[in-house]
Automatic annotation (TrEMBL):
Belongs to the AHA1 family. InterPro entries: ArsR-like_HTH, ASHA1/2-like_C, HTH_ArsR_DNA-bd_dom, START-like_dom_sf, WH-like_DNA-bd_sf, WH_DNA-bd_sf. NCBIfam families: HTH_metalloreg (NF033788). It holds the Pfam family HTH_20. PROSITE patterns: HTH_ARSR_2. Signal peptide: none annotated. This is ArsR family transcriptional regulator. Coiled coil: none annotated. It comes from Streptomyces incarnatus.
Amino acid sequence: MDKVFKALADDTRRRLLDRLHENNGQTLGELCERIAMTRQSVTQHLAVLQAANLIGTVRRGREKLHYLNPVPLHEIQERWIDKFERPRLAALGDLKRRAEEAMTDKPSFVYVTYIASTPEKVWEALTDPGLTAAYWGHRNESDWRPGSRWAHVRTDGSGVEDVVGRVVESEPPTRLVTTWAAPDDEGREDRHSRVTFEIQPYEDIVRLTVVHEDLRDEGERSGAAAGWPAVLSNLKSLLETGRTLPQQPWLVPGR
């Protein structure tokens, strides 16, 4: 939390976060626009934000894209704001969000977690049908080659597919990009969202960044914001302890 407050104390870093809030997934060059300082200085500010887990980075080809990670800000809100003024501020926040959404592109969600594991094991956990069945409640089935179909299949033996899509990029064990759609929308690419998994090793740990973009509306973004932390917490528990969480985390009721 100290790193978060330190990062937010600087006006330039707040402006960088505002820029990412306006248009998530920008390169260093794009973030340097309209900021009167050198690229090196901007890079240093971004490093502080990344150290505070306020942003995450994803490589797309030769570019490095920067994404806002809202989780630390949400924790500040829960600890310092919600318990005092939650009802009134929730109404004001909803009004502000609706006004902002009318002026922005499709919403996206970014989640960053750190796992005591290896890139190979994290990759396997994301792509192996048996492992995904253990911590996700669905089997992720595909050969994971670019262009191949993938499906999120129920584990109750019904064979029902709840999510389908295509593999866009596959670079084991560091990068996987897939499209996501409801089965009824499989043939309508304009209704597909996109999920990027970036697996970055650092000594004995792995940073896993998940970017879910091209979501249709705030309802889909809220669903992603509720679902991804639960699923990835279960994945983290499985890899670090050999066991999933005692209860399915996505069934925990909201406040």
